[in-house]
Design a protein that fits this description.
four-stranded antiparallel β-sheet; peptidase activity; 37% helix; Aminopeptidase; protease; hydrolase; 2 domains
């Protein structure tokens, strides 16, 4: 395809059509089900789906069909089915993935900004869900339109937009099974829920960590007691929980002690990490507003820690009063929410059983331990890149970005990729996106780099055409 034609279509669509509608999507408080237990009643997820469905339907893509699928008790899914161009009918299905649900708003947005008020300023679109991941459906559709406008080819494309990704995609396995006949043979997966460490090049994510989530409650008393009267006789529930956590994590280094949660890192992924360090030495230390120092001074070790080593974060707690309300009380129980990130090739279920075992065996003082809300999701490691994909990636990197593309492992999780990797082992994967190092996903002042999102869209258009001609 002629690059100028593709670029003109992409820029025109983004300027005139995408940004106004995407801004409207930002304004919808479509919290993921994990953060809105009344999501079916509030209707925000349904509103987000309808907003995007109406926009895509109005594009008038020949032969396209749109369906909102909603299995009983599960959050809705938007499926857009676009037939292949005339020369690509036998090339299988391109599955293009994104999500419409959002993280909570979180306080502390800068003056003039708000999670549900879209603001375009200095080439940025601010608002919750702008980059994670509201733009994805628009980018996928625009890429297809750009291929057609430039006289290119694309195989059958199914755009799948879910509404539970921020909750760990619990409904996706059921939907994939429900839609397996409709999806057919998937030969290419394009995921637009990722990004990289700068806005200068196309970034490909080659691995994603798995995840393990559990609430653990330690109870030592039937009811709270005066701390002066009971301490020294009754153990602190927090101390018991701390002892249990020390079985899992080295508190000084953060190293996870359980063998089931670790793997040998493939040498090609180590080489990729070295390549990222070479183009951006020191960048890993400045990605986040760290108070103090990062856990290592070695850039390579930081990247490997983030992409191929297990970690534990305590992301929630219950049973603690606010400091202003804290009396001299020995609390009856402590609950912590543990969030583990697992190496891409670790067995999440084996990891879950290992964590369960160490938290419930030989508990100090025979305290009561209850585990709840267990979630375990495998990670994903990309297959080897096919020659046609390798060729087009080098081509678009030069023509669209003017810089070589880079691959790396992302520390986050997209459960759908692991599921698709198992179901379609022969498919090629392009996991990319418009997220940058300072896009503020999940935190205040989330923003989308509009120019970068346009270039990612342009690159995807060329990849679709190359796949159809491979």
């Amino acid at each position: 395809m002629e690059h100028k034609s593709v670029r003109e279509t992409v820029v025109s669509n983004w300027t005139n059509d995408v940004l106004p509608s995407l801004s409207g999507l930002v304004a919808i408080p479509a919290l993921s089900p994990a953060f809105d237990s009344e999501w079916a009643k509030t209707g925000h997820l349904a509103a987000a789906v309808e907003h995007v469905r109406s926009w895509i339907a109005a594009r008038g893509i020949p032969g396209a069909t749109l369906e909102v699928v909603e299995l009983e008790g599960r959050s809705p899914l938007l499926v857009v089915d676009i037939p292949a161009t005339s020369e690509a009918a036998e090339k299988g299905t391109v599955l293009m993935y994104g999500h419409l649900d959002k993280q909570p708003p979180v306080g502390g947005w800068s003056e003039g900004l708000d999670p549900w008020t879209p603001v375009i300023r200095d080439g940025r679109l601010y608002g919750r869900g702008a980059v994670d991941d509201g733009y994805s459906g628009y980018a996928a559709t625009t890429a297809i339109e750009a291929v057609r406008a430039a006289g290119g080819e694309h195989s059958r494309a199914v755009v799948l937009l879910e509404t539970g990704e921020e909750s760990g995609s619990p409904d996706l396995p059921a939907y994939v099974e429900h839609l397996k006949e409709k999806l057919g043979e998937v030969s290419l997966v394009v995921c637009l829920d990722a990004g990289g460490t700068d806005y200068k090049r196309l970034w490909l994510t080659t691995s994603l960590r798995g995840m393990l989530h559990v609430n653990v409650t330690v109870k030592v008393l039937e009811s709270a007691q005066h701390s002066g009267m009971a301490s020294g006789i009754v153990a602190s529930s927090f101390r018991v929980l701390r002892v249990l956590l020390d079985r899992i994590e080295n508190a000084e280094t953060g190293e996870i002690k359980l063998a089931e949660l670790s793997v040998d890192i493939p040498e090609n992924r180590v080489d990729e990490a070295r390549g990222v360090v070479e183009i951006a030495p020191g960048a890993a230390k400045t990605l986040f507003p760290v108070v103090g120092r990062t856990v290592s001074d070695d850039d390579l070790e930081l990247l490997l820690n983030n992409s191929w080593r297990p970690t534990l974060s305590v992301i929630g707690a219950e049973g603690f009063p606010l400091p202003a309300d804290a009396g001299n009380v020995l609390r009856d129980s402590t609950t912590l929410t543990l969030s583990f990130r697992l190496p891409p090739t670790a067995d999440a279920k084996a990891a879950m059983e290992a964590v369960r075992r160490v938290l419930t065996t030989d508990v100090p003082y025979d305290a009561s331990v209850e585990l709840g809300d267990f979630q375990a999701e495998n990670g994903w490691n990309a297959p080897d890149t096919a020659p046609w994909l390798d060729e087009i990636l080098h081509h678009v990197s030069g023509e669209v970005f003017g810089a070589p593309h880079k691959s790396y492992g992302m520390g986050g999780s997209i459960p759908f990729m692991g599921l698709l990797g198992e179901k379609y082992p022969d498919a090629q994967f392009v996991v990319t996106g418009a997220c940058g190092p300072d896009s503020n996903i999940h935190v205040p002042d989330e923003w989308l780099n509009i120019d970068f999102a346009q270039r990612v869209t342009e690159a995807v258009a060329h990849i679709l055409d190359a796949h159809a001609r491979s």
